[in-house]
Amino acid sequence: MTAYLASLLVFAGINALLALGLNVVWGLGGMINLGLAGFFALGAYASALLSLRLGWPMPLAGLAAVAVAAAAGTVLAAVTARLKGDYLALVTLGFAQVMQLVAANERWLTNGTDGISGVPGPWRSALSPMQFDLLCMALCWGLVVVCWAGLARLGSSPFARVLRAIREDEMVAEVAGKPVLWFKIRAFALGAGVSGLAGSVYVHFNGYVAPDSLDVLLTLNVVLALTLGGTGRMAGAVVGALLLEALTEGTRFMGGVLPALSPVQVASLREAVIGVVLILVLRLRPQGVLPETSRILDLEADDDERSRIAVPGRTLRGA
Amino acid sequence: MEGAVLAVPAIGFNAVYAVLRFANFAVASIATVGAFAGWVANTALGWPVAPSLLAAFVVAGVVGVVTDEVALRPLRPSGALTTAIASVALAIILENAIRFGFGNDPRGYDVAVYRDWRGFGLHVGPQQVRDAGAAMVAMAALFGFLAFTRAGKTMRAVADNPMLASLKGIDAVRIAQIASFIGLGLTGFGGMLIALDTQVDPLTGFRVLLSVFAAAVLGGLGSIPGAVAGAFLIGIGQEMSLLVLPATYRGAVGFLAILLMLSFRPTGLLGQRAS
Question: Which of A204, A262, B1, B225 has its CA 20 to 30 A from that of B17?
């Protein structure tokens, strides 16, 4: 039971890292990133291959995973940062799908759909499985706390204030003399880097990575976690990840309650629940459990709304 | 050939975008719904392909409109991006509803298999020709609808200028429903055409999602002629890519095309709205 709880908390921690990464891009910068799974995959594969094939120590492989994912984020952001929401959603989702295709097809590098197994974990051979799970839990949450503290600090910095201004009204931020594109690229790279770190943690804990665990559902889980917790606040990302884990584990017991269903049916119900909950949260409590305090106006204010003049309280605070 | 088949769901996606102004990711699963509806009509009821395609259109359209009303419409005031994210969730729900009912096993239609026609050093599959023909018929029907019927004209009016249309007394909600029915119905029709060439399983639609988006973006989001042009270009690009890339990367061609297009002409070939 302890080992089970520990492994649950590791997965919750991985989701928390991903949600923190998404929060920088989406929560602060207002850019949707449906390509999380792609950055996660880059991080996981980079870390796995470097530690397994080249024998790099895990911390170094993890740093490399962050660097690779951040580099990919920079390139993707440079191409897409000028696009508005819909296009960005399309392109980032496409990026994740291409990463999955590459992972499934470049057999010489990724071993194709069979995936890579036997990835080293911290002191895996010296510890009992339970000790290993507990150690990973501690390490993973240590990383979560470090990222959380760092990003929360960043969240109150001038950098984040400009990002929020860009989110609220890009044109005003531009007029105020902020290099909007440059801010967006940095936010995107940072978010991608944290997602890459999550991938690295995942692969060293799990010992195995395969393309089919990197699909759009992973991204959707994180979007749900962040929406549940509250976009814009780093604590929201962490709380949301814990809530999400409770939700997905809660539905695991559906198979016991409904014994007439086949395993495939139970699995499909569990996936569907994620979708239903996301839609309900968006509808009933879009600001999440921990709403951003300085939030002023709807994030997705469209053009008609933007042209409306003098919305009360809608000022360029902090830009 | 492939371009023609791809054009049908791409048109569906763009028709919804033009009127409702959000990227409806649920098209991935709606295409699968169409493929399964056609499969049930074809194998369980024993219908030939043509009426099965019609069943795919109607069932996908109805499922599309109903799920849109229940899940997405209440979210539209929250903005296009929120609705788009919810539509990803809807896609997952529909995919799993299908999986719940039909399982993961791939299925095929009950159709005769013909030998390829050969000539001038080319191989042409009669099935592909027939599928392309069906796609052409669907497109012609849509263009006829948009050009000559009152509902079609109002739909174009709403797409063109929603405020002016509402001043003229056009009921935007009803037009949105019609657009959803036709757009998502076409997506289902296209889903069955794709499945005829490949297989029917809960991920049939997701597999071509990237190509469909690529066609829609390449042509210009919201532009129906653009979707056709984009789909043909993507279809040709995917075939040409076989010369340099393994066949499994066909989907990636679309992504590259999107990136190039957005870098140089973000509005797409025939679109107006972009960044």
Answer: B1
